[in-house]
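RETRY 2/3 - previous attempt timed out on the joint model. Re-submitting the same 718-residue input unchanged.
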Amino acid sequence: MDLDFTAGEEEFRQRARDWLAGHVPAEPLPSLETREGFAAHRAWEGELAADRWSVVSWPEEYGGQGVDIVKWLMFEEEYFAAGGPGRVSQNGINLLAPTLFDFGTDEQRARVLPPMASGEVIWVQAWSEPESGSDLASLRSTARRTSGGWLISGQKTWSSRAAFADRAFGLFRSEPYESGGTGNAKPHRGLTYLMFPLDADGVTVRPIGRLDGKPAFAELFLDDVFVPDEDVIGEPGQGWRIAMSTTGNERGLTLRSPGRFVASADRLVRQWRAHGDPADTALRDRVADAAIGARAYQLFTWANASRFAAGETIGAESSLNKVFWSEYDIALHETALDLLGAEGELADGGEWAEGYVFSLAGPIYAGTNEIQRDIIAERLLGLPKGRR
Amino acid sequence: MRFLLDDEQREFARSLDAMLTAADTPAAARAWAAGDHAPGRALWGRLADADVFALAVPEEYEGMGLLPVDMVVAFVELGRHAVPGPVVETVAAGALLSRLAELGEAAPAKRLLTALASGEAITTLGLPEGGPFALDADAAALRLTVTGGELRLASGHARVERSLDPVRRLARLRPGELLASGAPVAAASRYAADWASLATAAQALGVGLALLDRTVAYVKQRTQFGTPIGGFQAVKHRLADVLIGLEFARPLLFGAALTLDTADVAAAKAATGEAAYGAARAALQLHGAIGYTAEYDLSLWLTKARALRGAWRGPGECRRLVLSGDREAD
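RETRY 2/3 succeeded.
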C-alpha cells in the first residue's frame, strides 16, 4: 500500500501544471450559465483541445492523450488547483462519450467525439421529463419508426445549458409500455437511446431560469423530429441498459473528480487562516470538516482508482460516492458563505455564491440521493426491497 | 500509487478475525469489566502470538519494525471484536520507546521493549497529549507516564474510575522512577500520541463496522407490521448513511497510516470517531429497547464508540490540529 507516484506520473503532472500556468485565464470567465459566458467557455474548450488537454483520458485519435485514470485524476487536481474554468462540455465528455466508447459504432465515434473534444459541438442530456425524474423507466416521449430513421416526440426538461448548446442525447420509448397489461409489461424495456440536434425542425427550446435566475437551463419540446438511424446508440429498445452504464459514470468517478473539492477546500482553509475568528470554534470545526471531507473523497477515489488498475470494477459503490460528494459540496459552500459573513449574501460575490447555487442541485440530479440510499441499502447492505 | 491493502495484509486481517471470533471476545470483555483479567490475559497472549504488539517495535528489540499500516489493519479487527485491555497504550508505548532509542535514549528501550513486543508486559501509558487517566492501570505490568518532559515508570495508581464503557478502567498514574528526560522525551511523546490516536481511530472504525453489521442482521430478521423493519425506507436510509460515514473514514485512516502526519492522523481520528458514534446511535435506535440493555452484547460496542470518540484526542482537538497543519495542494 502506498501513495507514491511514478516518475512518469510526476512528469505528466508537471507538464499539466506548466501548461495550465501558461493558459488559465487570469480573470475568471463570466458564468457559463449566461450567453456571453457560454461562448467564452466554448472558446476555452478550444484552447484546451488545441494542446490535447480537453479530454486527456481519451485515445489520441479522438483528441486525447490516452492517459490512465491515475493521470486523469492528477490532471483534474492540477486543473482545479490552477483555478481552471468550469467545463461547459462536461455532459458530453462525462456522459455521452463513455457510452459511445462502450456502445457506439466506429463511425459515430469518429463523427461525434472530435468536435465534442474541441467544444465545437456542445451536448446536453435529454433524459428527465415532466413527472419522470429519477424513475427513468417511466419516460413517455416516443420514438416512432420511419423510413431511414425515427421520429421523436414529447417533452424533455431540466436540460442544463440547453438554451445555448448544440446537440442532445436521450432516451425515448420506441415500444409501448402497458402498465398491468398483457403486452410489454416491463417499463424499462423498449427504450431507445439516440442523439439529435437542438436546431432541428420540430425542436423548441424554452429556457427555465434556475434558482439564481440564470437562463441556460431549459426544457425541450419535440414534435416529430427526424433522427436518422446513424444517430441511434446501440440496438433500438436497449436504451435502458445503455443508459445505466452512463448513469454509473455520472454517479461515480467522472462527474466529480476530487480535484475540484481539494482545491475548494484548500481555498476555504486559506481564507479561514486569513480572516477566520479563532474563537469561533463552531465555524472552525466546519472548516476543518471541509478539509477532512475533501481529503476523504480524494483518498476514497485513489482507492477506487487502485481497484480499477487491479482489474476490479465498481458497481453500486458509485452510489456511496454520489451521496457523499453532493452533500459535501453543499456543506463546503455553506461554510464558505458563513465565513464571508454579510458579504456572503451577494449573488455576484464571487465563485462561492455561484458554486453554492450549483451545489444545491447535487442531491437532486444524477439520481436523487433518496434513490441512491435505496441502492446502497439494498445492494451493498442486502436489505429487503420495497416499502418506499 | 497503489492505495490498496496487499494480499498479506488482507490475510493478516482474516486470520485475526478468525482467531478473535473463535476466542469469544465478548465474554472476555465482560469479565474484564468485572475486574477478572484472566480471560483477557489469555486473549492478550494470542494477540501477541499474532505479533500485534510488535508492530511498532524495531527488529533489534524483537519487534516487526515500524508497520503503521499493519497496525491499523490489526486494530480495526480489535475494534470489530471489542477486545478489552490497553491495546492502544501498549502499541503506543512501543512507539514511544522505539522513537526515544532512535533519538539517542536507548536505555529504556533496551530494558523494556522486548517484554512489551512479546506481549509478556501488558503496558499502559499516560501522555500530556492524552487525557488525565491511564487505561487499565490495575491490569498493566508496565505503566509509563510522561509529565513535565520526563518519562517515568509509575509507582502505582489512584482509585480505578468507571468509564462510560465499563470495559475501560481508568486511573491516574503516580509518577515513579525517572527513565529519561529532555527534548527527546517531548518528541517521542508527540510521536507516540500520533500512534495512539491512529490506533484508536482504527479501533473506532472496527467498532462502527461491528455495529453496522449487527444492526443490518437485526433489521433483516426483526418484523413489525408484518414485515422486516429493514424494508422500511427510513431504516434503510439511516443505515446507508452509516455505511457512507464508515467507508469515507476508512481511506483517511489508511492514508494517515502512510504519512503518520499529525494533521492526517487527526483527520482520521475525527472522521472515524464521528462515523463510529453515528453507527452507535443508529444501532441503538434500530435495535429499540433490546439495545438499551447491558445484558445484550451490542452494549459492548455502543458504549465503546462514545468512549473512543473522546480518547486520545477528542473531536475539537482533532479539528484544531487539522487546521494547524499546513497541508496544501502539493
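Strands of chain A lie at 123-126, 142-146, 149-159, 167-173, 191-197, 203-207, 218-228, 232-233. Closing ticket.
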